[in-house]
Write a structure and sequence with these properties.
heterodimer; A: about 160 residues; alpha+beta; 7 helices; 6 strands; about 45% helix; B: alpha+beta
């Protein structure tokens, strides 16, 4: 649902896939999924990051795009990242944890740490109705309204099967 | 993919072997059915140390509402596979909600949701015959092969039911679609019981064994394979590994030779009983029927006692039609369960495609050049190159396929245009040492494509190497591949985007699990 919602929000396909996985991870660890909902409601503006030797600095960009970039940065060997918006820390932290990267925050700066990363487990979860409604409404932006022609042709068959 | 046949590695076959190995017994503790056959029933079994139950609900459906399409809103019968043994309150809940299907909300105790419509012609014939104190006409049983058709089998979290991860670690449930296959097999048994109840008589064992469960399958399966590339790779890798193993068999003993001869004869009978109205499919079956005796004639005693006979059979099969080649490939696996059945454990995967951001753009570009010519050689700006678009319908939230240049909605298309995405990536990616992660920070829209390119390098069967939005794309080919992995047979295409099939035909009945495995290409003994 989050992946669909992300696409409805204008998030590119790859980042929508990533956000869906991070949402499942948060649900599995019992952490709040509020950062996901917040990211889905953020305008998708162009990204601007500066790469330095061993660290990366975000100048501009929405959390849904910054999260994957910083996860990539640590996987490429960066040891420090600086956010432009400290409000993005929760989602970026979830991206790092989901990839198994222990980390430590100091304001808007995140570095590697030796802490234990929580593991998600698959279990029934309850999503707050407010979040679910936001996700559903965004996902619905990708649905195509039906026409009589698409009813008949789009899925391909006749309308009754009494044989 | 469009010529695939079921094999002994198909999921239903694997499930039957697992049920037999676990000495599973099916009980029917609840049968609340009125004389015309409307009411509910509960079937229970213990499998892999866990209890499961199928709750079946039969309702009176006006003929004008009977459609196999996913757009239907009412069905003859509806089902839930339940985690555990339901108490009366849970039975009541499911009896109230199952008939609503997608319009209801389910719980994490509900594992699979399904529905089925009667094959009216055969169901009425069978029950009328039983009422008259005789067995149904064998010809009619052979012609249809099932009493009901399922029109959807939902699992893995849809509409509130349990996520697959909830049961994936349980013995017997780890393979792909095991809960769904168990549901299908139980539904098939229910259809036998319901016909006997309505008819007031007992169907012969041979008739029941030949009555599988029909299924109508539309476009929904195609996006599944595109969206689960590593699962597709696992299925295909297992199939190819199995074929490689039997090709490596140095020689055949007398029993194996006899088995192959029996299977060739059975396949010939199966082909003679496989009749479909679709002209293209019928022509292909005719070709199979012509090829098959010629193929059989090549299996001389000298050929069967030569060194590496299976390898020679597969090599020589290139002379026949694609359908015949695929049938031969499925056949040669059959006598070698000891060599290939263990591979079924490798058909599920918990992995998902992962991006390697440290790879250089030069290496990424080299992968595209090596593996993606089938995608990059397409002109997606030409009308034929992007003639179709996949989308999700607002009304049923189901995948559909539209004509881009004739229908509205293309701006909301689903991202199944993998080839086009990779070509766009190829146009932008530099051939230098820049890490892919830095490139994607500048070009976020290429993230999905870059991940797929890297995945294909490690998982050679992960992609359907075709333009899925092209004018020539036939979704029916994708459906057939997946359905064959399920164990489906008797493919009966109704258009280029939906097909009827038969599942569990020839499969053991509830009390026949002592003989679980000899039902490849089942032929009528009724």
């Amino acid at each position: 649902m989050v992946q669909k919602a992300a696409r409805g929000a204008g998030v590119p396909v790859g980042q929508a896939e990533d956000l869906g996985q991070v949402a499942a991870f948060l649900a599995g660890t019992g952490d709040s999924i509020a950062p996901v909902t917040a990211a889905l409601q953020e305008p998708i503006v162009p990204v601007n990051v500066r790469w330095h030797d061993g660290n990366v600095e975000v100048v501009q960009g929405p959390a849904a795009l910054i999260g994957p970039i910083l996860r990539d940065a640590f996987a490429m060997g960066c040891s420090k990242a600086i956010l432009a918006d400290v409000a993005h820390a929760a989602l970026v932290g979830a991206f790092l944890s989901e990839s198994g990267l222990a980390h430590h925050w100091d304001g808007a700066t995140v570095t590697r740490s030796d802490a234990t990363v929580p593991q998600g487990v698959c279990k029934p979860v309850t999503i707050a109705p407010g979040d679910w409604q936001i996700w559903s409404d965004l996902a619905a932006r990708t649905y195509v309204p039906e026409t009589e022609s698409s009813r008949l042709d789009g899925a391909g068959a006749g309308l009754t099967d009494n044989d | 993919m469009g010529a695939a046949f079921p094999t002994r590695l198909s999921f239903l076959r694997t499930l039957m072997r697992a049920l037999a190995a676990d000495d599973v017994h099916v009980a029917r503790p609840v049968w609340e059915m009125d004389a015309p056959g409307f009411g509910h029933a509960v079937y229970t079994l213990r499998f892999g140390g866990y209890d499961y139950a199928l709750i079946a609900v039969s309702t009176d459906l006006p003929p004008q509402m009977r459609t196999d399409r996913v757009i239907a809103t009412a069905w003859d019968t509806t089902y839930v596979l339940y985690d555990g043994i339901p108490d009366q309150a849970e039975i009541d809940r499911i009896v109230a909600t199952a008939p609503k299907q997608e319009a209801a909300r389910f719980t994490a105790r509900d594992l699979v949701l399904s529905r089925a419509n009667k094959s009216i012609r055969l169901f009425d014939h069978v029950t009328d015959a039983l009422k008259a104190g005789r067995q149904p006409d064998p010809q009619k049983i052979r012609a249809t092969g099932y009493l009901m058709r399922t029109t959807a089998v939902y699992g893995n979290g849809k509409f509130g039911i349990a996520d697959r991860g909830h049961i994936a670690d349980r013995p017997g449930m780890g393979g792909p679609f095991m809960a769904e296959m168990l549901t299908i097999w139980l539904i098939r048994g229910f259809t036998h019981d319901l016909a006997e109840h309505v008819g007031g008589g007992t169907l012969s064992r041979d008739a029941k064994r030949h009555l599988g469960i029909g299924n109508s399958t539309g476009l929904g399966m195609a996006p599944f394979l595109v969206n689960h590339p590593l699962l597709l790779d696992a299925w295909m890798s297992v199939r190819e590994t199995a074929i490689a193993r039997v090709r490596a068999v140095p020689s055949l003993n007398e029993d194996q030779i006899g088995r192959i001869y029996d299977l060739v004869a059975r396949a010939a009978q199966y082909l003679s009983e496989w009749n479909v109205p679709d002209e293209i499919a019928a022509r292909r079956i005719d070709t199979l029927r012509r090829d098959w005796p010629e193929f059989a004639a090549t299996l001389t005693p000298e050929a069967m006692t030569a060194r590496h006979p299976i390898d020679q059979i597969i090599t020589d099969s290139a002379r026949w039609s694609i359908d015949t080649q695929e049938l031969i490939a499925a056949l040669v696996l059959e006598p070698f369960g000891d060599l290939v059945d263990g591979l079924a454990d490798c058909m599920a995967t918990s992995f998902v495609p992962e991006l390697d951001p440290a790879m250089s753009c030069a290496d990424l570009k080299a992968l595209i050049d090596r593996d993606w010519d089938w995608a990059c050689d397409v002109d997606y700006d030409a009308p034929a190159g992007s003639a179709q678009f996949w989308y999700v319908s607002e009304e049923k939230l189901e995948p559909r396929l539209g004509k881009r240049h004739l229908e509205p909605g293309a701006e909301l298309e689903s991202p199944l245009d993998i080839g086009r995405q990779v070509k766009a990536l190829a146009d932008d990616v530099t051939g230098d040492a820049t890490p892919v992660g830095q490139f994607l920070a500048r070009h976020p829209r290429h993230r999905a494509a870059a991940r797929r390119v890297q995945s294909l390098a490690r998982h050679p069967y992960a992609e359907i190497r075709d333009n899925l939005i092209g004018e020539a794309c036939l979704p029916i080919d994708i459906l057939r591949c997946k359905l064959a992995f399920f164990g489906a047979g008797k493919f009966d295409p109704k258009s280029d985007r939906w097909t009827r099939i038969t599942l569990a035909q020839g499969a053991p009945l509830f009390d026949e699990l002592d003989n679980p495995d000899d039902w490849w290409l089942p032929v009528a003994t009724v």
